[in-house]
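To assess whether the prediction recovers the assembly geometry, we first specified each molecular entity separately, as shown.
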Amino acid sequence: MNELRDILSQGAQMSLVLGLAPLLTGFVRKVKARLLRRRGPPLLQPYRDLIRLMRKDVVLADTASWLFRVIPYLIFAGTWVAASLVPTFGNGLLFSWTADLIAITALLGSARFFQALAGMDVGTAFGGIGSSREVMIASLAEPAMLITAFSVAMIAGSTQLPTVAEFMGSDAVGLRVSLGMAFVALTIVALAENARIPVDNPATHLELTMVHEAMVLEYSGRHLALIDLSSQLKLLLYVSLIACVFLPWGTATADASVARLALGALVYLGKLTVLGFLLAVFETAIAKMRVFRIPEFLGAALMLALLATLLRFVSGSL
Amino acid sequence: MIAVALWSVAALLALAPAGIVLSTRPRGSIILYGGCLIATSTLCVTALSGLLFFPHLAPSATLPIGLPWLGAHFRLDALSAFFLVVVNLGGTAASLFALGYFRHEDSPGRVLPFYPAYLAAMNVVVLANDAFSFLVAWEFMSLTSWAMVVSHHREAENVRAGYIYLLMASFGTLALLLAFGLLASGAGYDFDAIRASHPSAALSGVVVILVLLGAGSKAGLVPLHAWLPLAHPAAPSHVSALMSGVMTKVAVYGFVRIVFDLVPEPVWWWSMMVLLVGGPTATLGVLYALMQRDIKRVLAYSTIENIGIIFTGLGLALAFKAEGLDWVAALAFTAAMLHVFNHALFKSLLFFGAGAVLGATGERDMEKLGGLIHRMPKTAFAMLVGCVAISALPPFNGFVSEWLTFQAILLSPQLPSWGLKLVIPAVGGLLALAAAFAAACFVKLYGISFLGRPRSDVAASAHETDRFSLTAMFALAAFCLIAGILPGLFIDALAPVSKDMVGNIMPHQVGLQWLTIVPIAESRSSYNGLLVFLFAALCGTTAATAIHRLASDRLRRAPAWDCGYPDADPAIQYSASSFSQPIRRVFGSVIFGAREIGEMPPPSSPLPARLQVELHDLIWDGLYAPIAKAIGFATDRINILQFFSIRRYLTLVFVALVVLLLVVAL
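The predicted structure of the complete assembly is given in tokenized form:
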């Protein structure tokens, strides 16, 4: 009985993240549009885009290799697995011990590795520009993410996300400077990893400002749909991660009843709404940075994360 | 067991002179590499069975060679057995690869006699149980590999590489010689006697510094790395694979053997030195790798990075051992040993791939490659596995060892000493940076050489490599995946090594639910490569089937879109230098003193605009160049002694005699 519930809970989690991801993107777009006093596309537009793209033919460049056709599935698989391991509404994930926070970061790293390769496969100038800038951004964002994970893990005494979430929800946490720093660092990393303003512009089609869009320029049809879906999943993953580590209240515990799980799901939706709204406000309020400003921005995240870790080494209570 | 091992080594040694004869025969290379293949695989199986079934037996043997009153002592304990597996797995793969690759070697006589001798020397270093045999084998290993580094002696660059290598190797041996001299002062050269003696803490500290210099220069620790990126790429590719994948591990063995085994209980500041060298080595090594455009040089610099990761693990193990936390020391030590094994696998694989590319195109310069995935699909696939594995990405093996190292770092707030508390987070940050740079570096290596469009005619007309080479590459690629998804097996196999060296073992892994690995406790951290792999495979195939069935599976070929500016010229693609330009701009100005000089001709001039990039190796400029200059200055001054007349020589001798007598008398 218990195992059945666990499997169902894990399955529900996997389909939930997959189903919600386009909605979150649609919501952020809608709020951004409203803030700019535009009406904006309907909330469900991302779903329609995905379905339309999946039905279209793939137009493949003559110079593309087999790897180019496989990569969308690899990216999607890596991102989906990572996203389904972050606790959303409940902590009782059956396979949560499969990978901890470090492994989730590395899984996203695998997805990015292949994405950058895809940018270089066709042999165009824009693909190269995108990949080259993406690895530059990643070379700072990934360590910042890892060190943030270190600081959080050292406070909670575990790198397993359910344990971390449980610890953060308990009274043992208290108010800590290092957690504040880790929160800012993780937010900056999340902005960079999801190609949001001020690091990249998800809506740009001006060639020289693109990073993510330049890498996927040659993709079309179902391949593009999968890559878009993966980016949406990644956004959801980071929002869930911030919610799970820094706003752990209301998450259902491992042995919760069905009603408690439903409540957890509602609270989770609330958190997504709030964080998505904040993201839209932030993006509207700030301008995009020049490419070579990004390292300074991400360097700040790296230093904050390192400082948070160092504080933990210096004193157990900071 | 040790008899089998020694006989196999003897067979390898016997093959060396045979190589001189065989090099003139048309099928000689096949016979020689076949012989090496048999000998190394025998050694590998012997050592593996020793490690798995009789880890605490430690058979030893004494042969009546070497110093007359000492003899040559050999011993096969768990540590030796593990490193024998690493050496001979690499040796087997390299010999198999060479069975196909030898066709690209135009003067086999310069490689064949040295290759089996080199393999034998590495085996003897690992087996030796007295300082004399160890040092003789160590020096023999350096000399034979030097001979193969200068095998293409007509290229000036290779001769320079050989010269610097020889100097650094002598320096390393000198440091080790002094270290053993200090250790043997109270005991004698036999390792068993050294183990039984108890040198003072100060003496041991000096020994550790000397070993760090000696073994570190062989392994390529910054700042003693200068020779490595010159020498490793200069050798033929299968030898490069052995030098990078295996010989650096023999150096790690030397370090572990002396510091963890021969010297008594460690003190915390030893670990501080190792960590302070290991962390920067990892980051600097991979940053250098990112700036290169020669495919084999990228791989050589990335070896430096991985050595840094291994030494960081060893430093952590020393720290925890010194502070009495031996269960964490076991974790850090196992992580380091696992990375030794993993790096031997994927670095050999990558050098084989580079060798296959070199054989097919004659090019090592990435700027002249491109699009090889179309012309050499099988090599490209194996290379892709190697690139993902070395970038420490799941589900491959590189990730597991880095993950374990990170887990050890996360336990370090328990250390009492303040120095370590401040250094370890910084080292953790450096390792995290190194992991990210490694991914960038191998995106570049693979993307520029294998993807895109060919940048030269040789790349456009390349052909798939031969079957032996492919077998060697695919076998290693399979090992990379197996070690990545079933790491528990490998961790358990390392338990006796860790027991001998740090006095404790990691929890038993095989038998845990779903073959998960749990370094400390399940609530703390766990990782399951198998399930990650299966999950990802399942998600990917489900998505593919569902979309192809339900939505669309049609596909059209068309010219590339490229924002509407497609250009038929492959030169518009990003090149290796332009790919790393953003990272060079962010980090390079400080670390490499990088400068970009743009020459823009006036508007009416027909001259092309030029952009020149200047990179400096600050360690070379700041450390090696002044030493070389000082030696040059001193020798110039002493040089006048050569041109005296006989009278003045006699006067000189007389004065010297008087001075000496005075010194003796007083």
